[in-house]
């Protein structure tokens, strides 16, 4: 689709389409040359930032940009991570398959698509997702250290593919750690059960909506990543209260949330229609207070990209 078609197609509401055309020109050039190479990444990010600024300023409508993203993706990028994210196979962004593909760095085999996936995985947000797996593992290490005879009970809320659980148990077979995993998506539960089959006795799965049900046997560690950034403040506080209630005295709740510092945000929102509630450290702290956490029990940490924050509440 040459640029003038953009004018015709998307000129309904707003009249400054130059940031969208700039982006289109760049993407088309890269499609023609076999996909972006690392030297191109900054150009793409810059064009997306311009486009994001134009959307925020009300110069280009978000609907027009999304309509464009669907067009270009379905014509040229089918099979890439970008197409899979935009396609929302299970009806929402960030399903267990996408998360699994991010963890395992899945890359299309077709030569003309490979570079697009390399670009996707190079970005700050997928890096932050991979880092949060390591963050969870670190937490498991620190909570299980020194517990020789007493088992550690962990609740994993919105567990998705549970690849994080699988890797940790395989690497630490001698540790007495038991996991309860809850997810509302039956396909995620089925996938996670397969991944955790080699040590099935260590992991219990619940196919439930965590806003309605939580197993409540009492946990030393309650972990949730990739869920709270989809929740409004009100639901955030409601669920956090429920998680605090099933955490034993001396235990810890740790909740991940993307921070307001996310260099991939324009890419996610404009080319992936992947919208999250990005929150600052102060915002997370305020929500924890609202949920009834004592001020001195709250801490906010982050993974090395600084994109995924972690709200810690000591019980
Ligand atoms: C982005 S994935 C995160 C998966 C996993 N925690 C991780 O970080 O690898 C989000 C998961 O939340 C699940 N989910 C979303 N809303 C839920 C709810 N209300 N109750 C339980 N699970 C939910 C989805 O099915 C999906 O598997």
Automatic annotation (TrEMBL):
Q: Which GO terms describe its biological process?
A: methylation
Q: Which UniProt keywords apply?
A: Methyltransferase, Transferase
Does the record carry Transferase as a key word?
yes
Single GO MF annotation: methyltransferase activity
Give the species.
Prosthecobacter fluviatilis
What InterPro entries does its record include?
A: SAM-dependent_MTases_sf
The protein, known as: Class I SAM-dependent methyltransferase
**E.C. number(s) listed in UniProt:** 2.1.-.-
